[in-house]
Amino acid sequence: MNVELYVPFAVSTSASDALNEVLDYNLMRDTIAAYAKGQHIHLLETLCDDAANRMLAHPGVRAVRIRAEKPDIYPDCAAVGDAAALPAEAETHARERAISALSRRAQKDAYENNKLYKRLARQVGQAIADYQMIEAGDKVMVCLSGGKDSYALLDILLRLRERAPLHFDIVAVNLDQKQPGFPEHILPEYLTQKGVPFHIENQDTYSIVKRLVPEGKTTCSLCSRLRRGILYRVANELGATKIALGHHRDDILETLFLNLFYGGKLKGMPPKLQSDNGKHIVIRPLAYVKEADLEDYSALRQFPIIPCNLCGNQANLKRAEMKVLIRDWEKRYPGRVESIFNALTNVIPSHLMDRELFEFADLRVTGAVPAHGDIAFDDEPCSVGLAETGVENTLPLSLQPMLRAAP
């Protein structure tokens, strides 16, 4: 079997003649040998396909070419299989074309990846600026769970800090809830490699939640309350001035729909708020970011994701239903979800029914034209003018001037 791997130029070139700077040849030999020894393989084609897939699973491999042959199968031929059949010159040209295609694809991938980061950086920076989330001298405690969202939050804040016009410190904090099988070495190793100051808080909230919440019931409410209390205490101990959480745009919309459908409230998830104990400011710098973009960014950055087995696998979560609803709307009605999200920043209390937000009881005639008037939904994007419908001409003559004068 002959295996050829195509890798980016940076991975194939060593700066200091060190093995860890390039793709180790043992990857090919050991991977194929372990696979072949582990089971009986009937078809040469199966061996080639599986070997190629295993090579492509490596993040540094862009393409693979495998040629294999079985010697001494027939007495009148040397071998059967996928042997090299192209003349040397033709094979050289084919190799050059393949490398050129890989180079173009690599350039396109690099362009798209850079565009993704720029979009995320712009959205995070805009949210921070719009709500003044981070100020000079702040110590931002980034709550790191091991999921894609908190990894992305930490990564983007670190990269933004490098060119920020003000200085602020970052400390990563993880709450180890003592879930069975939790890989407690992953986060310390990752943060140490990145040179990020961190603190791991060990608290067995898992046992508390499992003991107090009946089987089949959702654990989110109790689990989140326990986590908040512990994180507030840790923030005090570390001297953190801001607590940064990894909630994104979809989380905010899901919370809005949960409160709307099941709580009877027009309530979302604020980008900035005072903590429950009144001693901290909690911020959500990912408030403008789509979850789909975070998924792509997580794959690009190859974060060592740690799954949450306590809450993420609960099939009866209403939040999961909201997530499906949002994804469906985005596919079927482009722009609808974005419009709903924008509505959270464009609230008109006088056109709702909350007496605490608007003094309906004290409303009196002033003679002045109100800012929003009584137009309700007259400016519906899909509406048509009255002249187009002919409605105006069907009204009594006494009402037509009033309609034309109405705002």
TrEMBL record:
Taxonomic superkingdom: Eukaryota
Pfam families noted in UniProt: ATP_bind_3, FolB
Molecular-function GO terms, alphabetical: 4 iron, 4 sulfur cluster binding; ATP binding; dihydroneopterin aldolase activity; metal ion binding; transferase activity; tRNA binding
Domain Dihydroneopterin aldolase/epimerase: 2-82
InterPro entries assigned: FolB_dom, GTP-CH-I_C/QueF, Rossmann-like_a/b/a_fold, TilS/TtcA_N, tRNA_Cyd_32_2_STrfase
Keyword line: 4Fe-4S, ATP-binding, Cytoplasm, Folate biosynthesis, Iron, Iron-sulfur, Magnesium, Metal-binding, Nucleotide-binding, RNA-binding, Transferase, tRNA processing, tRNA-binding
One GO term of the biological process aspect: tRNA processing
PANTHER family: AMINOTRAN_5 DOMAIN-CONTAINING PROTEIN, SULFURTRANSFERASE-RELATED
The name this protein goes by in its record: Dihydroneopterin aldolase/epimerase domain-containing protein
Origin species: Linnemannia gamsii
